[in-house]
Recover the amino acids of this structure.
DNA sequence: GCCGTTTTCGGCCCGACTGTTTTCAGTCG
């Protein structure tokens, strides 16, 4: 768990150094940070086992950064970072969350206006002082104000991808206790919402003391907010809270139903109970004083004349009515329905792992096929591939396929690409180059500030391109960071229908793009979707879990998702 | 600050876009 913290510290050093106009060192610190994030082992473990030498063997870590890692492991501080902070006493972490604001601008704002944090910045900008700083101007000031507004919108909310790994650690810790009979996440986390307020855990047990002790002594606890017999709360070092509730075995189902929500879903469910002369609360479903259900959620729903509604659907978007009619939701898409992943990067472009490594990791996941979709020319930073390089990659892919064939394996690797949609809607690679590929993904990676009409036309032009099959991360949003692009989604959906273009559900926890409401619209119109990991590292293949959660929140069935097809069916769909 | 089919200093993914300027700095990917 410490790796993430350490990487963050190193990145922060890089940012402060950039503020101080230092060259190259920031790059070194960033590189070290990113290789630490990719380690399988924790830096602490490496240090325990192999000492300093082990630290220096981490790629990108030399003598100096090893010093800092050692210092942090031993003291929990990095003196160098403290010194840098004294020079520029600004809340860099939060200031840099403002889209469009980098270390250099933060420095200007601090030196000219004494801006140290977001509040200062907001005041300065709304008083018109930001525009007067040399190098900044009125538009920058306006953009800053808008970006701060956007940040404020999701204040106190955390991205599912940030919360879930920590939540799982707590879950595992509690589950290992013999006193714990049943355990589940509840709340928005269980509903797989893209933003969650906190971690809700529900446990059934008769003896609670040991469980509560284990919970409040979790290593990442910053503060115990409350500790009781049936309910405790902790604040984690990551910044969010976790709540644990313990109930009796006979109430686990009703409590789970109650604490999973959503609020609007539960209001509707309780109304149904009331209309039947029953009462529903976290302790059970009651007929007068007699408890008639509570042990399982299924029992509760069933006694109310409803089928069991999957947590991801519990938003009062029509699921209750469907459940009343007997719909069993079993065809909703599931992780195990995915037969492949169409959006995988390799070290041919910006990925961390080789083609071979990515392919074998995908194979180990139990996929039947996989699609490599590296960047094309325009994205120089990602070493986007030229037509010629794509042909070379193709040869390597064909080699892998022959190998699989020789092993009598049906596993198959397809070659696609993620082409860039330029400002005018054209692609950064020739039709001739695209024709050689099995399929084509296109996506927007630049030019985010365009008017609605222009932006919509741009995307539509790309969708109408005869070679384009899939649009990656269609709205371009970054969760808690950047709002969706200015697109007329109705028009986009219409063209997707006309052109048989598939829209991506990008599983990267930073994106989750399309969002649930858009997915639901696609499903209703019969537009097919692709759940892709957009992996740049083999650890990221498992991110499809987030995409599946998102798809389920959008009511997508397995038949709506093209990754559930066999390779043959997928290719014939693409070629028609 | 790290790295080296460059042994010990010189190079370090780079182009588009935006908003500031009026030729370029900062940010993003």
């Amino acid at each position: 768990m410490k790796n993430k913290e350490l990487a963050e510290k190193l990145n922060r050093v890089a940012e402060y150094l950039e503020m101080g106009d230092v060259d190259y060192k920031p790059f070194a610190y960033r590189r070290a940070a990113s290789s630490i994030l990719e380690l399988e082992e924790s830096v602490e473990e490496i240090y325990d086992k192999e000492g300093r030498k082990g630290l220096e063997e981490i790629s990108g870590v030399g003598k100096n950064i090893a010093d800092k890692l050692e210092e942090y492991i031993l003291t929990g501080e990095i003196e160098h970072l403290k010194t840098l902070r004294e020079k520029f006493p600004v809340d860099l972490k939060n200031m840099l969350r403002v889209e469009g604001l980098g270390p250099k601008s933060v420095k200007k704002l601090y030196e000219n206006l004494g801006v140290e944090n977001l509040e200062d910045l907001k005041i300065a900008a709304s008083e018109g002082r930001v525009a007067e700083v040399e190098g900044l101007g009125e538009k920058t000031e306006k953009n800053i104000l808008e970006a701060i507004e956007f940040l404020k919108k999701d204040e106190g909310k955390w991205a599912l991808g940030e919360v879930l790994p920590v939540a799982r650690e707590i879950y595992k810790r509690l589950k290992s206790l013999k006193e714990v009979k049943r355990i589940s996440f509840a709340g928005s986390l269980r509903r797989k919402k893209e933003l969650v307020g906190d971690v809700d855990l529900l446990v059934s047990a008769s003896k609670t003391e040991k469980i509560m002790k284990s919970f409040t002594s979790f290593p990442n606890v910053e503060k115990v907010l409350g500790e009781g017999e049936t309910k405790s709360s902790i604040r984690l070092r990551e910044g969010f809270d976790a709540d644990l509730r313990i109930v009796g075995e006979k109430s686990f189902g009703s409590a789970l139903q109650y604490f999973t929500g959503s609020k609007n879903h539960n209001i509707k469910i309780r109304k149904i109970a009331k209309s039947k002369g029953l009462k529903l609360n976290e302790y059970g479903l009651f007929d007068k004083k007699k408890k008639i259900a509570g042990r399982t959620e299924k029992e509760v729903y069933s006694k109310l004349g409803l089928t069991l509604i999957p947590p991801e659907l519990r938003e009062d978007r029509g699921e209750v009515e469907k459940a009343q009619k007997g719909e069993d939701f079993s065809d909703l898409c599931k992780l195990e329905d995915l037969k492949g992943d169409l959006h995988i990067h390799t070290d041919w472009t910006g990925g961390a792992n080789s083609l071979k490594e990515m392919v074998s990791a995908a194979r180990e996941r139990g996929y039947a096929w996989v699609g490599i979709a590296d960047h094309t020319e325009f994205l120089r930073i990602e070493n986007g591939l030229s037509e010629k390089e794509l042909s070379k990659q193709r040869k390597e892919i064909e080699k892998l396929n022959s190998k699989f064939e020789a092993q009598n394996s049906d596993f198959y690797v397809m070659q696609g690409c993620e082409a860039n949609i330029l400002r005018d809607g054209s692609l950064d690679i020739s039709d001739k180059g695209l024709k050689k590929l099995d399929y084509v993904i296109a996506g927007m990676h630049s030019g985010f500030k365009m008017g609605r009409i222009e932006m919509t036309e741009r995307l539509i032009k790309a969708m109408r391109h005869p070679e384009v099959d899939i649009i990656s991360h269609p709205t371009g949003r970054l969760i808690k960071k950047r709002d969706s692009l200015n697109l007329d989604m109705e028009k986009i959906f219409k063209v997707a229908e006309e052109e048989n273009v598939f829209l991506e559900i990008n599983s990267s926890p930073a994106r989750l793009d399309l969002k649930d409401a858009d997915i639901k619209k696609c499903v209703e119109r019969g537009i097919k979707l692709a759940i892709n990991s957009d992996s740049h590292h083999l650890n990221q293949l498992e991110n499809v879990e987030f995409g599946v959660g998102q798809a389920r929140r959008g009511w997508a069935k397995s038949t709506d998702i093209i990754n559930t097809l066999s390779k043959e069916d997928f290719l014939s769909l693409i070629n028609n």
Residues 387-406 of chain A form the longest helix (20 residues).
